[in-house]
Amino acid sequence: MKVVILGAGVIGLSVAIRAIEEGHNVEIFAEKITPYTNSDRAGAYWSPFTNTTTSARIVKWGKESYRTFCKLIKVKNAGVSLVDGLEYFNSEDQFSESWCSYARNFRKIPRNELPKSFVAGFSYLVPVILMEKYMRWLMKRFGSLGGKVTKKRVCDLSEIDSLSDIIVNCTGLGSIELFGDKLVTPIRGQTVKVRVRSIDLSTSKLYADPEFYIVPQSDGILLGATAQKGDWNTNVNLKDTQYLIKKGGSIAPRIGNAPSIVNESVGLRPYRPQIRLEIEKRSKGEPPVVHNYGHGFNGVTFSWGCAKEVVEIIKNYFRFLDLK
Ligand SMILES: Cc1cc2nc3c(=O)[nH]c(=O)nc-3n(C[C@H](O)[C@H](O)[C@H](O)COP(=O)(O)OP(=O)(O)OC[C@H]3O[C@@H](n4cnc5c(N)ncnc54)[C@H](O)[C@@H]3O)c2cc1C
Predict the structure, then answer these.
(1) Are the C-beta atoms of 121 and 86 separated by less than 8 Å?
(2) Which range of residues forms the domain containing residue 164?
(3) Nearest alpha carbon, ligand 1 atom 41
(4) How far apart are CA 19 and CA 147, in angstroms?
(5) Closest protein CA for atom 44 of ligand 1
(6) Residue 307: in which H helix or E strand, if any?
(7) What is the pLDDT of residue 240?
(8) CATH number, residue 164
(9) Would the pTM count as exceeding 0.85?
(10) pLDDT per position as a tens digit, 256-276
């Protein structure tokens, strides 16, 4: 069956790989491809928090992705590593233990061991994903399976209807215009990567709280990220860089107050109060659309879990057609 995927960010590429592995004929149409997507600007580490989608789905998506990233650690050039992580929360509604309790080396931090302003915290082994490497690897993997990518901005579904039996919408912020979804909005995120004398990923720790994170990566320490809702500006802002360095230095003194900068980066998170993952039937003769967008802060974290669900929806749809 011919599956057309709209979008080549982490969401589109993950679905594309799973769909082609299922034996479908898959083509991606995307306005931007790596290294120019928002996904290329992500932190990124696995973290199923700061999301309002219902818990059962979070557990399912997060678990599937965690399992997949743990496998990818062993894959050369995928850019995935596993580090010790500490994640803190300052209110009860930001987390549920069940969202991450299956992670390796999971431990709930006792209240008396928490820094003052936090009400809960977990430690566990966290997949860290070097996005510039990972996105390249996803693209290559899709190509090696026979997938085709066409660089094109789609303005109306009629442009691709005749090419597909089913369409998967992974356009993130593009869904505002293409599907008129007014619930989607950008949340601007700036990061800065700083150099420190030496980084040993086997002993470095990842730190995260709802407003800030410090992610050890092979080429530096990533400090992030700002979260400016409704802000479409993709230029680096000096004030944001200064804020991130100051904050990082206050938590990890080894960063100092004037570290050398490896790079600064800005991306726009495609935020939606609830991730939209569902099939939309259209008029007779038009292929249906499986929507998979609005992942906000957690697109990398849920990518493989959502891809699995999309492929199940596609399978059920074709089975239903066979029965008719
Ligand atoms: C600074 C920062 C840090 C982050 N850190 C993390 C993290 O640590 N962990 C985590 O899980 N997540 C993180 N995220 C969030 C994550 O990056 C996003 O949720 C994820 O990248 C969204 O992926 P996407 O594929 O939906 O969107 P995008 O990457 O924006 O991809 C959308 C694709 O659709 C295409 N498109 C749009 N409209 C059209 C159209 N009309 N026609 C054709 N193509 C179209 C685009 O060109 C692009 O190819 C972070 C984000 C930022 C900005």
Answers:
(1) yes
(2) 2-323
(3) 154
(4) 10
(5) 30
(6) helix 299-323
(7) 97
(8) 3.40.50.720
(9) yes
(10) 888 899 999 999 999 999 999
DSSP state of 45: B
Pair of tokens at residue 280: 């939309």
Is residue 50 over pLDDT 90?
no
Q: Residue 270: enclosing H or E segment and its boundaries?
A: strand 261-280
301/283 Cα distance (integer angstroms): 34
Taking CA 83 as the corner, what is the angle to CA 215 and CA 213, rounded to the nearest 5 degrees?
25
Question: In this structure, which amino acid lies at residue 177?
Answer: E
Task: Report the candidate in 32, 41, 35 with the shortest Cα–Cα distance to residue 8.
Answer: 32
Query: And the tokens for 306?
Result: 């959502």
193 lines ligand 1 (CB under 6 A): no
In total, the chain counts a number of residues equal to 324
What is the per-residue pLDDT across 280-310, written as a single tens digit (0 to 9) for each? 999 989 999 999 999 999 999 999 999 999 9
pLDDT value at position 324?
Answer: 57
Cα–Cα distance measured from residue 255 to residue 258, given in angstroms and rounded to the nearest whole number: 8
Q: Are 224 and 213 in contact (CB under 8 A)?
A: yes
**Burial tier of 143 (Cβ tally within 10 Å: 0-12, 13-18, 19+):** exposed
Nearest to 7 by CA among 264, 299, 274, 228: 299
The span from the CA of 125 to the CA of 86, in Å, is 9
Q: If you take atom 48 of ligand 1, which residue's CA is the nearest one?
A: 7
**Number of domains the chain contains:** 1
State both tokens at 206. Answer: 């990842």
